Task: inverse folding
C-alpha cells in the first residue's frame, strides 16, 4: 500500500477526530522518523512531549523487553516488585510523599480532581457536593467529559454536555482574580504552570509563588498539571521549580512512559493522598509491572543523561536561532527550555507552515491555530536544532513570497 492508500483507508475505518499531516510513519530512532517511502524527518514535536527521550531509546527498549519477558500485567489485586521502586523515585523527584499510578494523562487529572474534592469534604469541612476547583481559561487537561466541561475551547465542548459542575475559571496566572474567586468551598486550584496546548503561554515570573501564598492563606490545595511541562521539558525537572514553590499535588504523564507506553500518575502530599482508601478509585492497568519498569527507567535516564541541563542549554540554542529569523510572519516567540512556541501572523494558518515544514523533512504541529510548537526530544544535538530551524526559516520564506 502506498501513502495515499493508507490515508484513504484510515479515513474509512478510523474516526476523524484528528487532522494528521499526510505522512505515514513506520520507523523511528532518536530524533529521526522515517515514512513508508523511506523519507527521513526530524521530529521537532516529540508526540506532544511524550517522546522526550527520542524514539526507541536503547535503555527504554532494553528495560521494556527485559520486563516483557518477566512480568507485565497482574492488576493491583496483587503487589508487583516493580511498582514500589518506581513510585519511590517519582515521589523523590517531585518532593512529595505518595503517588497513584494511572495510564493516560486525563485519568491522572481525574485522580487529582477526585482527591481534591474528597480532601475538601473530609479535611476542610466543605458541605457535601459544594466543592469548587479553580482552573484557568485556555487550559488543557485532557478529554474526559468532566475535564472538557471546564475547558474554554468551544469545539471541545459543543454537544458533549451536560457537564460536571464545580469548576470556576479565572484568567491564566491572574492572581488578583484568584483571590476574588476563592470561597469557603474552594478545595483546590488546578493549573498548568506553563500552558501548552493553548499555544505555550507563560505567566509573569512570580505568579506561582503568589499562588502558593494565596492557597496557604485560604487552606486551598495547589495542584499543578505538569503532564507536558514536567520531566525536563522546560530545563528543570518540573516547571514549578523555576520558582521556589512546592505544590501539594503534581500530575505527570506523557514522557513518563518513555515514549513507548501510557504511564501517568498523581503525586501528592500524604495528607491529600490518604483520602484514598481501598476500592474507591483505581485502574486495571495503572501501575502494572511493565509500565512501572519503563517509568523508572525514564526517570533514571533523565538524570544519567543530564537531560534537564540539556533542555536548558539547548533551549537557549533553539530560542536564539528562532530570534535570528527575520520574517514578517513571526509575531512572537516564547517558551522555556526545549519548549518554544512561535506565533505566526494570522493570514498564514500555522497548519500550512507545518505542511511546508513536512515537505522539507521536519515534523511538528501547530498548537492552537496560530502557534508553531518546537518541542524536540531532549536528546537532540545542537546541529540538528540548527538544521531544523533553517528549514523553518526557508518554509516561512516560501510562504511569505506568495
Ligand atoms: C496532554 C495533556 C493532558 C492529557 O494527557 P492524555 O495522555 O492525552 O490524556 C493533560 N494535561 C496536559 C497539560 C497535557 O498536555
Result:
Amino acid at each position: 500500500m502506498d501513502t495515499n492508500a493508507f490515508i484513504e483507508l484510515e479515513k474509512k475505518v478510523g474516526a476523524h477526530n484528528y487532522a494528521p499531516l499526510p505522512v505515514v510513519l513506520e520507523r523511528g530512532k532518536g530524533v529521526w522518523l522515517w515514512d513508508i517511502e523511506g523519507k527521513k524527518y526530524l521530529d521537532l514535536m516529540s508526540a506532544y512531549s511524550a517522546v522526550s527521550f527520542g524514539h526507541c531509546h536503547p535503555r527504554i527498549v532494553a528495560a521494556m523487553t527485559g520486563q516483557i519477558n518477566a512480568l507485565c500485567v497482574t492488576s493491583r489485586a496483587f503487589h508487583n516488585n516493580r511498582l514500589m521502586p518506581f513510585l519511590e523515585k517519582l515521589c523523590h523527584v517531585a518532593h512529595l510523599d505518595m503517588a497513584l499510578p494511572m495510564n493516560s494523562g486525563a485519568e491522572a487529572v481525574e485522580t487529582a480532581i477526585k482527591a481534591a474534592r474528597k480532601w475538601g469534604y473530609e479535611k476542610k469541612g466543605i458541605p457535601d457536593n459544594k466543592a469548587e476547583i479553580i482552573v484557568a481559561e485556555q487550559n488543557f487537561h485532557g478529554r474526559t467529559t468532566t475535564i472538557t466541561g471546564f475547558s474554554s475551547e468551544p469545539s471541545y465542548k459543543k454537544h458533549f454536555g451536560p457537564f460536571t459542575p464545580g469548576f470556576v475559571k479565572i484568567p491564566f496566572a491572574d492572581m488578583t482574580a484568584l483571590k476574588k474567586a476563592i470561597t469557603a468551598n474552594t478545595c483546590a486550584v488546578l493549573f498548568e504552570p506553563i500552558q501548552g496546548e493553548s499555544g505555550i503561554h507563560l505567566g509573569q515570573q512570580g505568579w506561582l509563588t503568589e499562588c502558593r501564598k494565596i492557597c496557604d492563606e485560604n487552606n486551598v490545595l495547589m495542584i499543578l498539571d505538569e503532564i507536558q511541562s514536567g520531566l525536563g521539558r522546560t530545563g528543570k525537572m518540573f516547571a514549578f521549580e523555576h520558582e521556589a514553590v512546592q505544590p501539594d499535588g503534581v500530575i505527570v504523564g506523557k514522557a513518563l512512559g518513555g515514549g513507548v507506553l501510557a504511564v501517568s500518575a498523581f503525586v501528592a502530599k500524604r495528607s491529600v493522598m490518604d483520602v484514598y482508601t481501598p476500592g474507591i478509585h483505581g485502574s486495571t492497568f495503572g501501575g502494572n509491572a511493565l509500565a512501572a519498569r519503563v517509568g523508572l527507567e525514564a526517570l533514571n535516564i533523565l538524570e544519567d543523561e543530564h537531560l534537564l541541563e540539556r533542555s536548558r542549554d539547548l533551549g537557549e540554542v533553539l530560542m536564539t536561532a528562532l530570534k535570528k529569523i527575520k520574517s514578517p510572519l513571526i509575531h512572537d516567540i516564547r517558551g522555556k527550555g526545549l519548549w518554544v512556541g512561535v506565533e505566526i501572523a494570522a493570514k498564514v494558518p500555522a497548519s500550512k507552515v507545518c505542511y511546508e515544514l513536512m515537505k522539507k523533512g521536519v515534523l511538528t504541529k501547530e498548537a492552537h491555530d496560530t502557534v508553531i510548537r518546537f518541542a524536540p526530544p531532549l536528546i537532540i544535538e545542537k546541529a540538528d536544532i540548527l538544521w531544523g530551524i533553517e528549514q523553518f526559516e526557508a518554509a516561512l520564506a516560501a510562504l511569505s513570497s506568495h
Q: What stands out?
A: The mean pLDDT is 97. The longest helix spans residues 105-124.
